[in-house]
Amino acid sequence: xxxxxxxxxxxxxxxxxxxxxxxxxxxxxxxxxxxxxxxxxxxxxxxxxxxxxxxxxxxxxxxxxxxxxxxxxxxxxxxxxxxxxxxxxxxxxxxxxxxxxxxxxxxxxxxxxxxxxxxxxxxxxxxxxxxxxxxxxxxxxxxxxxxxxxxxxxxxxxxxxxxxxxxxxxxxxxx
Length: 175
Prior knowledge:
Helix content: 25-40%
Strand content: 15-25%
Strand order of the largest sheet: 2-1-5-3-4
Order of helices and strands: HHEEHEEE
Radius of gyration: 34 Å
CATH class of the largest domain: Alpha Beta
CATH architecture of the largest domain: Roll
Number of domains: 2
CATH superfamily of the largest domain: Phosphatidylinositol 3-kinase Catalytic Subunit, Chain A, domain 1
Shape: elongated
Structural class: alpha+beta
Number of helices: 3
């Protein structure tokens, strides 16, 4: 048999139903002693052991699948009963010249670049340089934040800059 050397390899560790001793199959049909019932019984016992291990493995996989489905169903129930979680913070923009604007932005999805773009939209004089500082929260229970937004922060989310959902912050734009 061309696969006989592979049958003598030990099974991988940690699999359900495997034994630590290597499975040894006869190297070829000539090695079988037809008259020896003992050799035949060994082969059948090995086959029964393999089938029993496989059935144990199938049972374990079935139990794990049932548990996984139960957990997913529970998660769906919790998600439906809890409603949606607000991930937005209220930002009060104080613009040069005294104008103000209020925006609600998702702190996890909005980046510092998008905050800068929003400030640019609100600027009346877009030709002059501007600087943005964020402070707060003015409402909410998050830890205090005071940052000056710069280009190095553009890829970061508002949450990574310290802003928390459900809180209000002052965004001061100075030219």
